[in-house]
Amino acid sequence: MSDIGKVRVRLPSSIKPGDVVRVRSLVIHPMERIERDSKGRIVDKKYLYINRVVATYLGKTVAAFDTTQSVSENPTFVFSFRATDPGTLTIAFHDTHGGKYEGTADVKFV
Amino acid sequence: MKDHPIDRRRALATLGALGLGASGLTLSRPRRAHAQTLGQHETVDEALKRLFGARPLKDGGGIVKLDLPLIAENGAVVPVSVDVTSPMTPANYVKTIYVVADKNRIPVVFRTTLGPEAGQAAIGATIRLGETGDVRAIVEQSDGTLLAVKREVKVTVGGCGG
After folding, report:
1. So what's the ipTM on this one?
2. Architecture (CATH level 2) of domain A7-107
3. What's the whole-number mean pLDDT along residues B143-150?
4. Domain that holds residue B53
């Protein structure tokens, strides 16, 4: 649990201007499941899970995910964007307890 | 400041019109208001009705590719990917992609919002599956067309607990 919020972002090793780039991102997060008491009733509490993921590149949102508890623990998210200029790709994960975890990757051309 | 009253009147009228416009917008696009309650305990039919109302879901067979393992040995982590053939230009792009797992207690798994900047409508994630059942991908294009595809996944060990 101490690793909660660790983010990894992976881009292809070589990117050319104008390429559509596929990004893989991973966040370490428990994504709490629904709990039930001994009578099978759903425990009503504020579950800790990621409910929003936003990827920003050059100040624009390229992809956003609204997620529920049906997403796995330590989830990965894959999406693509068109790399036009060098810049930073930021992926922000927001959870239901107000946590915000960010990962970045530099988009540069070789 | 001599024409101040007219200005204020005008300003108020504009504000009123804006407010009306804004409320009209929310009415026609209820998804925003439901953002907090995307995942609910409901059946898949209820979920689809809540998200799309009576809008027709067309078969997206040739356009939408939903990739899932045939058999998921561990329902706790199932990779899913959705590829949509789309030019992704400002005039014609994929706006949202929903992934829905029919047998999950919370059927709506996630919703992706894309824009033309994405360049390609290809997304993926790891999801949970409670038991063997259909998984659907529902794609909303910029012109409002809804395309749906589904695939059955056999789940050996359920991953939703509870």
Report:
1. 0.90
2. Sandwich (2.60)
3. 94
4. 42-157
